[in-house]
Fold:
Amino acid sequence: MKNSAIFKSVLASTVVATLAAFAVPAHAWEPTKTVEFIVPAGTGGGADQMARAIQGIVVKHNLMKQSMVVINKSGGAGAEGFLDVKGAKGDPHKLIITLSNMFTTPLATAVPFNWRDLTPVKMMALDEFVLWVNAETPYKSAKDYVAAVKKAGDSKMKMGGTGSKQEDQIITAAIEKKAGTKFIYVPFKGGGSVAVQLVGKHIDSSVNNPIEAVAHWRGGKLRPLCVFDTKRMPYKEKMTTTMSWNDIPTCKESGLDVNYLMLRGIFMAGGVTQDQVDYYVGLLRKVRETPEWVALMNKGAFNQTSIEGKEYADWVGAAEAEHVALMKGAGFMAGQK
Amino acid sequence: MDALNSLLDGFAVALTLTNIALMFAGVILGVIIGVLPGLGGANGVAILLPLTFSMAQSPGGQTSAIILLSCIYWGALFGGAITSILFNIPGEPWSVATTFDGYPLAQRGRAGEALTAAFTSSFFGAAVGVVVITFLSPVVAEFALEFGPPEFFSVYLLTFCAFIGMSKQAPFKTLVSMMLGFALAAVGTDTVTGTLRMTFGTATLLTGFDFLVAVIGLFGIGEILQTLEEGLEFRGASAKINLRVVLDTWKELPKYWATSLRGAAIGCFMGIVPGGATPASFMSYGVARRLSKDGDKFGEGMVEGVVAPETAAHAAGTSALLPMLTLGVPGSPTAAVLLGGLLIWGLEPGPLLFVEQKDFVWGLIASMYLGNIAGLIVVLTCVPLFAAILRIPFSVIAPIIIVICAIGAYTVHNTTFDVYMMVVFGVVGYLFKKLDYPLAPLVLAIVLGDRAEASFRQAMLMSQGDMRILFENGLVGSITTLALALLIWPMLSVLWASIRKGLAKGA
Amino acid sequence: MSEANDQRAALSNKTAELAVAGSTFALGAIVVFDSWRLGAKWMADGPQTGYFPFYVGLIICIASVVNFVGALRAGDKDSAFVEVGQLKLVLSVLVPTSVYVVLVGFLGIYVPSIVYIAFFMLWLGKYAWWKAALVSVGTNVFFYCVFEIWFQVPLPKGVVESLLGLD
Structure:
């Protein structure tokens, strides 16, 4: 039977991998058992997709002798996953992929966690955010839309987003501040359903990541107004008959000076050795060179900034300070009313 | 007919030897996954995803890959019913409603019948689901877009009202049980404001109480404890274990055509919306109980009570793939992982998938027909085998079941706290059952509580606190009205009966 | 089993009803208390975080009081909730199971499961020791293959597994 063949091959490869692990020379550290790859978010979301893509690439190109398993720990807006890795101090067989909730969740809920409890490994990419409206609305630019929101008055227009007091709502709060107006922010569970709610005209706009809304854009249901980045996205391939990602203006160009990028980075538990960190940095570098990774980056129109080491740690530190300021400004801190 | 031609092409794509082998492999894996509560369909699909990654590179490989993955999904849908019927332990959330009549049937030595009925109705539900996908996909995708937060809330309300309406138990015990379910569902992060509720500063409560842990404890462990009172054995060991039982049951099944059709309709509706297979199974069971002429015997072991939830669950599970393909919205966790798979293979779910990837889409749809037939063949031939499990002596099978339950409870959130909670829920289940507190409302409240509350509050945000949003347009208005009508119907009929009595006396 | 014939009431129905109603009341009170802390009012833009749980808790409390009073009034003190013989049987499984899950927290899933299944078969089933050993070890090897190897679902492991190099 076919399935037993699969079992056998998996079994065989595991055995081979285990044997191979013993044969490794002693100088460089390598994983000696299955590596757990924690996703502090639910199945099917952006972080989950990226983790599973990395796992798939590692398996396909045989980049690691041990196997890698992806485990979702999404409870408490990701706090479950972060606390799990925090508790695994010194364990070199645990990786975690982060999104902005690494900053926002502890701030919003006072869960005892800080990114300094982890060891930064490598930033894989940054995720862009785009302001979307339904294609049947008359708004052609961010300026038009902001004017319409202002004209409608406070708490009239609805902005949909993923989760509460997380990246989408932070961006919404930043827009409100810059434009001097107020949205009704409606939180949904996943980016995919936010996009569909916008197609169904239940909300007026969203700040979906490119990958979450691209299908509806290409299907002529949604219209991108601007990207929340300092420069335009570099992808020039036509996505619709007339537009490429590169044709979307930055929000600043359209008179809405708001920038936000979301970290897609990899961390390990605290208290691991430099050898161990180096191993994963090397592994992830190899992952970034594969054609599958390049395809994923193009598909999701990611900002391909990728840094490691001290530079990465500094970046995270700066991002944390920025989030504290944004969250305070928006009144999203725990205990803040 | 355009769809028919495309479908025939699809069969040509799907019907290769490799693909058929993959179908059977997928179904068998899926059944294993469905049987063990520790492995969900989402789990199995996620694990095999990297394997399919290299498969998808070869020409036509994307179709083979999705066939393998979707067949795991069908297998898991079939497999969930097995432990529900044999041991009162739902292997998957959508087979909870199957325990209500499936398990009593097994206790009376009719496990084979219950299993056959479950599998056959699953197949029927799936078949209806696939037909809907084949011929109605453009229309149906538009319909799903009509559903915003108020509409979702009204659908959950409808599920509730359809299921609760009439309960034989003491009303205040039903109330306590249901409200406990809501309270448990509320533990953890509040999705609307991001605040932590009732976690009391502990990390273990962050994840809240998972429905599966509660169900494994309340139903599975609770049932074993109660069985023990009558000695160290399972009832139902006398189940017939030959294939004749399949044919005998098939003779009986056409009687329930109305229930099957209703179940399929409810399932397709809930799958497309997407409201999910679990609410669909509860709603279908509730509706069947109200409309059947043997309604008051439901819960004591009626074949019809197995047919209703299984048809709906499978119809919903199948049609849930439609919003995934056309809108990119997963109708279930498993669909969510499949969606991730599509993206990684370089396919883009959404309105253009049907245009740009015709071969893939129709290959997948054709494989749904074939995969379900493969699934039915596999599970039906195994009916005697499954029924024979009940003949294993209690002191061997009981500890193994408890170990399986413990593994199942652990894997939900990878925490041993859930294993402790499973035993606590087991004791609660034992006490509640003996004191006539109904368990079904509690379970339903855990499943739906969170989602219903979130949609309600999203709706309230949208309308800025105006309840009229629940009657805002024809769609949400009629669903809400139907729900309220179902809720007060039993009260009205009691009232009407007493008025008639009063009139009769007066005359 | 001879123990099953002991038909004295270990616990009367009334006591059980009162205890359960009391417990649900306490749970309801906790829910009410925590929801009030979070804010349980209806604001301009809809209900606050604690709004629904607050009323859910309140309903639990009220319904529990009704159940409690109902049990008090019911009167028939003699009807047994569980007989001594039955209780012994139930405890003969419940106690080892509780010990088992606590052990899972310390030793991982596999070792306690082997011990538990073997204990069950030896003590309650009176099987020969080699049969018990065969079934308990065999089952766990099967689970190990299914979960750890085939589906790569890591289950909790303790010192014994790491000594064997299986984690």
